[in-house]
Amino acid sequence: MSVNEVFVKKTIALKYHLYFWGIYFFINFIRWGSYFNDYSYSFASNLVEFPLHIVIVYLNIYVLIPKFVFKRKYFYYVIALIILLGVHYIIRSGLNYWLVTKNLWPESQGTQEAFGFNHILAVTIGELYVVGITAAIKFTVDFVNVKNQNQQLQELQYKTELKYLKAQMQPHFFFNTLNNLYALTLKKSPKASDVVLRLSDIMKYIIYDASKKRLSLIQEINYIDNYVELEKLRYEENIESEISIEGNLDGIQVPSLLFLPFIENCFKHGVKNDEKLKLEVSFEKIAQELVFKAVNNFNYHEKDSHGGIGLKNMRRRLEILYKDKFDLTTDVINDMFVVVLKIPIQ
């Protein structure tokens, strides 16, 4: 939806329009009634003028501004507004003269006359005040609404991408793990119980914990550790891994499933035939920043894919979460693929 469409859309509930005009009428009635010490005159004149205020305000908000200002036709907007104010002056003065009083400018000082330049200027400035304040209110409300809509869209995109990431927990990972578990149970291996516990923790995390916006970093690390240990079972003796922690990470909250895609990439591109996958993962707190690092050997034939769509999707999610307050770098150092992510601690 464009700014023009948002502005034209009636984003303010009818009751607030009624509140505004009711309060504005009351203030004007009290103001001019006390000024002239004549509340009946103040009520009658305001009763004549207020319908004109309302017509001009809504013509300005819903017709002139969208038609000219948003299309950058400022000259035409000024001309149209001048014509509108001129018509307003004639109708207002005529109605007041016929229905309320022959003295159209009782507040004037000296020999000022109605229908003269000064009277026209005073009425026009007064009307511009009403037009200006109502336009400012409308712009402010629409700005807040657009901001809220953008936040809702970001929330929706965040939830959508989170569901996508959960779906990316490739089914074959679970099937392979279950197959390996079945094989272990046939052998009556003592490893079977450990596999069941780790797989149970992962499924609990995916089903329950990952739906939360943020989790403790310790939970995320525990989940990654379970994931790596189960992948070790899948690849048997072909994995050397280490997860290290530096600094006090207690109390740090992070978005759920933020680091898993990097770990998945290591397994996806790191195993080369019968060679071992060497994986090093570290978490370090430096001042008010969390530094995540993943290092693994990789398949040179899949070099481009290692930093392809997956990393682009991760970068997009980081932009949604942190805007420009993160740093994600990838590099190849001594035949090792290195990912370094720095995010602010929240």
What do these coordinates show?
This protein has 346 residues and is α+β, with helices and mostly antiparallel strands. It contains eleven helices and seven strands. The chain has a five-stranded mixed beta sheet with strand order 2-4-5-7-6, covered by helices on one side. Strand 6 and strand 7 form a beta hairpin. Helix 2 crosses helix 3, helix 6 runs antiparallel to helix 7 and helix 6 packs across helix 8. The radius of gyration is 35 Å and the shape is rod-shaped. 18% of the residues are buried. The model has no long low-confidence stretch (mean pLDDT 82).
Helix count equals 11
Distance from N terminus to C terminus (CA atoms, Å) equals 33 Å
- The main sheet orders its strands as 2-4-5-7-6
Integer-rounded radius of gyration: 35 Å
Query: Quaternary arrangement of the chains shown?
Result: single chain
Low-confidence stretches: none
Fraction in beta strands: 5-15%
Global morphology: rod-shaped
Chain-averaged pLDDT: 82
Query: Helix coverage percent of residues?
Result: 55-70%
Main beta-sheet annotation: 5 strands, mixed
- The overall strand count is 7
| Secondary-structure content class | alpha+beta
Order of helices and strands: HHHHHHHEHEEHEEHHEE
